[in-house]
Amino acid sequence: MGTMAELKVRKLTQNQAKVIQAMVSVPYANFVVPGTYISTASGLQGNALGGTVSALERNGIIQPFGRDGRQFNWELIDPDLRQAHREDSKTFLHMLTTIAGGTISV
Length: 106
Hints:
By secondary structure, the protein is an alpha+beta fold.
C-alpha cells in the first residue's frame, strides 16, 4: 500500500473508517455504494451518518453518484485509496478495520 494512502487512512476517524470500509467491502460495486447500504453496514444512522459522509465529501474522498429514490449513491473518488484497495485490499481493509474498532455488520 502506498505511503499517501496509508497516511490518509491513518487520519480517518473511527466513523469515517467504518463508512470507507463499508464502501470497499462490496466487491461488485466498483466503488459506488447506495447510502442505505452504508448505513446498514457501518451501523451509523441520522446525524452520525450525515456528518461523517459530509466530512468525507468535503475532504474529497467520496462524492454523490446519482440517487436511488431519496437516497444518494456514493462513490469513492480518492485516487490513492482506490489504488491501495486495488493493489492490496487485504492490508487496506485490515487498516480500516483496526481504525473502525472491529468488523462491519452486513
